[in-house]
Amino acid sequence: MTTLTLLFVISVLLTAALASAVLWSRHATVVKLAALAGLLCFLPIGYAAYADLLSRPKPVGLEWWHRNADEATVLGQQMREGEGLFLWLQFSADPEPRAYVLPWDQKLAEQLQTAWEEAMKNGTGVRMKLPFEPTLDMREPKFYALPQPQLPSKEPPSEQALRVEPPGEEA
Hints:
Oligomer: single chain
Distance between the termini: 71 Å
Structural class: alpha+beta
Strand order of the largest sheet: 1-4-3-2-5-6
Low-confidence stretches: none
Helix content: 40-55%
C-alpha cells in the first residue's frame, strides 16, 4: 500500500504545481478558477483510480519491475477462453504475490492445465519459466509442476540401537 500512497502524493504535487503556475499567471480569473476546480476534482478521482488499479491483474506487457525474472511460482490461476490467463505469481525476490494476465493462447493454456493437474496429483506446486519474455518457441513448456520432494534416506540402524542390555541382577 505504500506504493499507492507515494504515487498519489507525487501526482498531487505535480498537479498542484501546474495549478499554482496557472493561478500565479496573468490569465483571466475564469482560467484560474478552472485550474483550481481541476485540482480539486483530480484529488478524489486520482485516488479512486489508483485504488481501483490495485485490485486488477496487470498485463504482462506492462511489467517492468520483475521483467528479468527467471521463474515464478504460480499460486493460483484462472483461464478465460478468448480473454486471457489470469495468474497469481510469487517471485523469490518479492514477499508479496502479484496478479497478472497473459493474452489468451490455447497451447499455453493447455500447458498450464497439464502442469496444474500434475501438481495437484503430486501435492506440489507449479512454476513458470521466464514469465515476462514473449516467445514463439513452444518446444519447452513455460509451465511445469514441481517434482515430489525426495523422501528421507533410510539408513540402517546403528550398532548402538541394535545392542540390547540384559537386565541387571536387581530385576
